[in-house]
């Protein structure tokens, strides 16, 4: 609509004209998202229709032989069952992948790497949508390969073991490190 406002800015009664045009567009046009959805559905349906037409032509050619027709129908039914099973398997895999990524998000350094270590065959999606077996695998990975997981945030009052700075020198003091080293070795000279 901005392009239209730019064109109409110098005309008298431009705001009334804009309102009338916006109303007309709202009543006579479809949103881009709705158009894309319908267009994608149309394309998929065209592919499905071509596939069905091919199947019907094949059946037409074998009308003379009843046994051949029965075999073709059984073959087509089996193909359709196979396609449905593949779709259900892909859907389950997608659900498991999303559940695993959601469970690992923010807990690990590399979600894809850790998700690849989860055995999807041992994870089950219940009828209520709950994932069974995922928490146990994540806990096992956390115990055995803890380096893949982000550490817990540390309390500033309880520092982690290791080298610690001595004292509280003023920030940006170039002599602070030398003083700390000298104090640690009992050397008072600089």
TrEMBL record:
Q: Which residues form a coiled coil?
A: 42-93
Upper classification of the organism: Bacteria, Bacillati, Bacillota, Tissierellia, Tissierellales
Name the record gives this protein: Phage scaffolding protein
Q: Report keywords, A-Z.
A: Coiled coil
Stored InterPro entries: SCAF (IPR009636)
Disordered as annotated region, ranges? 155-178
What species is given as this protein's source? Tissierella simiarum
